[in-house]
């Protein structure tokens, strides 16, 4: 019965934005881990307090509206509680599945390595790199800008997804079986092409669709083999 009950707090993100100066924080327990501890939930509730708001997003995160004057302290407290705060803007943002609650961790080390190399790199428009740990791809890697699907010491690489909207569409398979040892350089190369040839603010899928028959993509695909 609760599924459709009206349960909207007085403060929604919309009403808060009309009322005053609030900052939105995007938080999660980590890139791979999807479990919050009760203590983390308590910290989140305390940080948001009576004045802010909490809601969940469509991309494995909680969104917090915090009075802008309190944001610096809020970030410190949330990070001390072990929470990850996602940066906003035109950067590379990393996503991953939870590797079956940590039971299927073969691709976890390379995921962490890619995170350290790529997260936060500046690009013409925000790029989501989503790594899934097996061919089930149950965290929808193929629906993000760069989808990496792990199987047997390699990744299938999907590009060009339209993640949302009436024309939402999965990406297409760009490269098959890119070895784990090569994937970091391979993805960096994709990013470099985007940084070099994209128009200002051009989303990744538009860039890829506009240029996909250009030589530089074919060269990259050939070099992988
Ligand atoms: S994509 Fe595969 S490894 Fe990742 S959570 Fe789903 S089933 Fe598990």
Describe the protein.
This is Precorrin-3B methylase. One of its GO terms (molecular function) is 4 iron, 4 sulfur cluster binding. One of its GO terms (biological process) is methylation. Residues 99-202 form the Nitrite/sulphite reductase 4Fe-4S domain. This protein has 225 residues and is of the alpha+beta class. The protein folds into 2 domains: 9-86, Alpha-Beta Plaits (2-Layer Sandwich); 92-223, Sulfite Reductase Hemoprotein, domain 1, CATH 3.30.413. The chain has 8 helices and 9 strands. The protein has helices spanning 13-19, 38-48, 71-80, 99-102, 108-118, 180-197, 204-211, 215-223; strands at residues 22-28, 53-56, 62-67, 84-86, 92-96, 127-132, 146-151, 154-159, 172-179. The chain has a 5-stranded mixed sheet with strand order 5-6-7-8-9. A 4-stranded antiparallel sheet has the order 2-3-1-4. The longest helix is centred in the C-terminal third of the chain and has 18 residues, at 180-197. The relative contact order is 0.11. The model has no long low-confidence stretch (mean pLDDT 94). The structure holds iron/sulfur cluster (SF4). Iron/sulfur cluster (SF4) is lined by residues 97-100, 104, 132-134, 136-139. Iron/sulfur cluster (SF4) binds at residues 97-100, 104, 132-134, 136-139.
């Amino acid at each position: 019965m609760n599924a459709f009950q009206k349960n909207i707090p007085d403060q929604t993100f919309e009403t808060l934005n009309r009322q005053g100066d609030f900052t939105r924080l995007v938080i999660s327990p980590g890139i791979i881990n999807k479990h919050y501890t009760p203590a983390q939930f308590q910290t989140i509730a305390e940080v948001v307090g009576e004045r802010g708001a909490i809601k969940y997003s469509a991309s494995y995160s909680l969104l917090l509206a915090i009075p802008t004057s309190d944001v610096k302290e809020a970030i410190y407290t949330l990070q001390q509680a072990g929470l990850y705060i996602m940066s906003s803007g035109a950067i590379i943002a990393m996503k991953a599945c939870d590797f079956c609650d940590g039971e299927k961790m073969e691709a976890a080390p390379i995921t962490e390595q890619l995170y350290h190399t790529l997260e936060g790199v500046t690009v013409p428009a925000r790029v989501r790199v989503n790594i899934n740990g097996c061919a089930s791809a149950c965290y929808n890697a193929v629906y993000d800008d760069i989808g990496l699907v792990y199987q047997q010491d390699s990744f299938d690489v999907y590009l060009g997804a339209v993640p949302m909207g009436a024309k939402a569409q999965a990406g297409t398979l760009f490269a098959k079986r890119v070895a784990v040892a090569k994937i970091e350089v391979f993805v960096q190369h994709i990013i470099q092409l985007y940084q070099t040839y994209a128009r200002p603010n051009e989303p990744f899928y538009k860039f890829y669709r506009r240029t996909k028959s250009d030589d530089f993509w074919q060269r990259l695909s050939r070099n992988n083999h």
